[in-house]
Design a protein that fits this description.
about 15% strand; 6-stranded parallel beta sheet; globular; alpha/beta; 8 helices
């Protein structure tokens, strides 16, 4: 089982349909897609900056932003199957389809260590990978990725969130952070033709 997180910044990217086609065609039975909040999440940040409401409220709104992006991606590629729970995910994968996760289960009534902007959709995808004992986590980004940088350094650079490096320590699965133009490379990886460390 793989977790593939599509950055919300790809929501307006012409390459998005190619990524969704890839995950629907080659990810059936093994891939769970997690979406970033994109412009929907940006609007949450803007509204919080204006009205100064709590991080808990912003967190719950940001979860809805991730869900909105998931609905957008499902609209673009209905072959991706919307899921809400672990049992939904297992059912979809068992049918040989690709799961598209709606993270409503992460909405909270009380503040926790995860209801703040240090814990964004990157760390949410990582947490899901831990909880589901994933074999691999792939984060698809719009920005250039320096392969020499550690996950902690990528957090400092804003490529991933600040909590990601710490939360990834001791992960039992590989974590790959790729640029959106590497769709062919990820296709080969999904098909088992190459490994990332071969390139």
């Amino acid at each position: 089982m793989w977790i593939v997180k599509i950055g919300g910044s790809l929501s307006a990217n012409p390459m998005l349909p190619a990524w969704l086609d890839l995950l629907a065609e080659c990810g059936g039975g093994r891939v769970i897609v997690v979406c970033g909040g994109g412009t929907f999440g940006d609007e949450v940040r803007r509204a919080q900056a204006q009205w100064r409401f709590s991080d808990l409220s912003a967190h719950n709104m940001a979860i809805l932003a991730m869900a909105q992006t998931a609905y957008l991606m499902h609209g673009l590629n209905p072959a991706l199957q919307l899921t809400r729970t672990k049992s939904d995910i297992q059912r979809v994968l068992h049918k040989g389809q690709t799961a598209l996760w709606l993270p409503f289960e992460l909405q909270r009534n009380r503040s926790t260590a995860q209801t703040n902007w240090e814990f964004t959709s990157d760390s949410i995808a990582l947490d899901l990978a831990h909880r589901l004992n994933a074999e691999r986590l792939v984060l698809v980004k719009s920005c250039e990725i320096d392969p020499r940088m550690s996950l902690a350094q990528l957090g400092d650079a804003g490529v991933v969130d600040q909590r990601f490096g710490t939360l990834s320590d001791g992960a039992d699965f590989p974590i790959d952070i790729v640029h959106f133009n590497e769709v062919g490379r990820v296709r080969s990886l999904l098909l088992g033709h190459v490994r990332f460390d071969d390139q």
